[in-house]
Amino acid sequence: MPSWPAFLPQQPVYKDINVSGPVGAAIRTNMDKGPAKQRLRTTVVPVASPIIVAPITQADFILFEDWFYNDLQMGSLEFQMPHPITDVMKSWRFDLSQTPYSITTIGDDAYSMNLSLEIMP
User: Which of 56, 64, 79, 116 pairs as cysteine with 98 (C-beta 3.0–4.6 A)?
Assistant: First the structure.
């Protein structure tokens, strides 16, 4: 399984982290009276974790795109990277139902990269 690119820090400097709980693991049914009923639909779901990595250079971005298109087969494969809070190695993938990544200029040869990621169960 591919790993987070070696040319970027193995624990990137995260400008912004947004880790949430699992969505879609349970089903909720409203009742005519009383509280809604809830039950598990599945015990494993990916957890959405969009991350902003900054700053990176133009050279870093060129290498990142090569890794994304070739090593991850256009973002379809999972990769290994430490969790940004717990530092535990996790399997990640890009959420291809959204824009998988975007880049914004923040200075002279300095960019911010938004990644739409999911932590895999």
Answer: 116
